[in-house]
Design brief:
CATH topology of the largest domain in chain A: MetI-like fold
Largest sheet of chain B: none
Order of helices and strands of chain A: EEHHEEHHHHHHHHHH
CATH superfamily of the largest domain in chain B: MetI-like
Radius of gyration of chain B: 23 Å
Order of helices and strands of chain B: HHHHHHHHHHH
CATH class of the largest domain in chain A: Mainly Alpha
Number of helices of chain B: 11
Oligomer: heterodimer
Structural class of chain B: mainly alpha
Mean pLDDT of chain A: 87
Radius of gyration of chain A: 27 Å
Distance between the termini of chain A: 58 Å
CATH architecture of the largest domain in chain A: Orthogonal Bundle
Low-confidence stretches of chain A: 1-13, 325-331
Distance between the termini of chain B: 50 Å
CATH topology of the largest domain in chain B: MetI-like fold
Helix content of chain A: over 70%
CATH class of the largest domain in chain B: Mainly Alpha
Structural class of chain A: mainly alpha
Number of strands of chain A: 4
Strand order of the largest sheet of chain A: 1-2
Strand content of chain A: under 5%
CATH architecture of the largest domain in chain B: Orthogonal Bundle
Number of strands of chain B: 0
Low-confidence stretches of chain B: none
Mean pLDDT of chain B: 90
Chain lengths: ~325, ~280
Amino acid sequence: MEQSVTGGGAAEGLPLPRAFLARSRGAAWGDRVFMGIVRGCVAVFVLIMVGIVAALVYESLPAIKHFGWRFIVTSNWDPVVESFGALPFIYGTLVSSLLAMCFAVPLGIGAAIYLAELAPFWIRPPMGFLIELLAAVPSVVYGLWGIFVLAPWLRVWLQPALGKTLGFLPLFKGPPYGVGMLAAGIILAVMTVPFIATVSREVLLAVPNTQREAALALGATRWETTRLAVLRYGRSGLIGAVLLGLGRALGETMAVTMVIGNRPEISASLFAPGYTMASVLANEFTEATSDLYLSALVEIGLLLLGVTVLVNALARLLVWSVGGSVKAVRE
Amino acid sequence: MSGLSRRRTANAVMNVLAGSAAFVVILPLVLVLAFLIYQGGTSLNLDFFTRLPKPVGEPGGGMANAIVGTLILIALACGLGLPVGILGGLYLAESRDRRIPWVVRFLADVLNGVPSIVIGIFAYTLVVRPMRHFSALAGGVALGVIMVPIVLRTTEEIVRLVPASLREAGLALGLPQWKVTVRVVLTTARAGIITGVMVAIARIAGETAPLLFTAFGNRFGYHGLDQPIAALALQIFAYAISPFDDWHRQAWAGALVLISMVFLVSLAARLATSGLQRQTRR
């Protein structure tokens, strides 16, 4: 018995045995079920994204209604009288992250240039591996090291020295505590540098070799090739890499909480203790006794989410513009 | 030729500068590891692995509960996050649609950059609020959500590498599409997917922030998935900021154990990938 298949794409019109047809009808059913499961998983993923935003908006509505704009422009944080102004946390997050970027951007991009362009070939894989390990160290371990090694070192050595030589600047005034904005900036730099270096390296490696060959053929030195033909070509990707690092720094919680001193004050000095948005969530979320207190904390989380999503979205688009949209950026 | 010699000097200077930047970047790794091995190694003992924590302020005891807790949380996170991540990645790689995969990929990369503490708040409102108390389940949900984008993206990348000829061979033998996907594509991409999973596990094993108000931690043994559960990273944090010297000592030991776990998993992931590359090159 033979019958022709109808509507079967490339197999259209081919004579096939009926038994086979019966099986392939079953197969089409299997395909539908499988596609359903796979689509369901994608839907779950999209729901997670929507759910995060919805949950944070919903939970922070009371605080948004109660405080309005005052929430982000006033700096009095007093749970006892339920007065919440998040400015010191916003300030702390921005200053610690920018400070970290001051250290991390030149070091990270420098390391990436070395690894992708200048280093001898035998040194590249082991060094790349070490930088990836650096990115794998858990935040709480950096925090532990920050409390017991970095902060005492800052208190005893670096801060007194800076105070003596540059103490006339408001940046380096005040008693050396060790813990504070400077310690947070350094720890954040250590934590974000591997991301910036790894992503920048991938961006540089995605620059086509014809760029390099053209510059070298014109007699350019290795560095001139890098500067004129590679860095310029990959510029938007490098900016993306820096933004990715910035996104990490803004949302980093544990290590910062452990070394920044956790005092909601705005001070010009880098020696003074501060507080960040992520740290206040880490420290006070489980202690929030009233609904308004909790809502205010969630609103800080919402602000943090908004800022990091913006920074990351921009960063991805920039990195993709160089590397092609299929290539994932490894983290 | 002073111009040329100036250019050569600039080249040499930049070489040295970039090289020293690379070494400065690696320096903290050496410093952190040195202190971990020195401080952690001297305070690590058998009690640490087998005993529960002693009451507050009493020296001795260990972190057996935290080690078990971390393993349970990882298992929970894998159970919740892996199906979504792997099948989602499969969809991204196999779908012929143009827009949806782009959007999902973009969302995954953005979710990857969302601070983990914000994901903790999400798990809090989703699980802790309705249940009215902290639980291992909530911690697993938070960690699972963190795993999804990492697994999704690595799965997609690896599945894309599976040659079309293998799929065509399967289809030509009369296998239905879903069987080709499961038996041919997934089997071929297995090593790469396992790598992605291990990278994700290495990432969540050390996560602390999202567990603070989901898993919460406890100082006793395991009491069920609907109860608070200890985690190594949480206990390191609690001990590090405590005023007791003996707890500081245990925090170092815990950090050494945690980082050994993370590095071992990362290393395994790395080896799996290099094996895979050798396979595909052949």
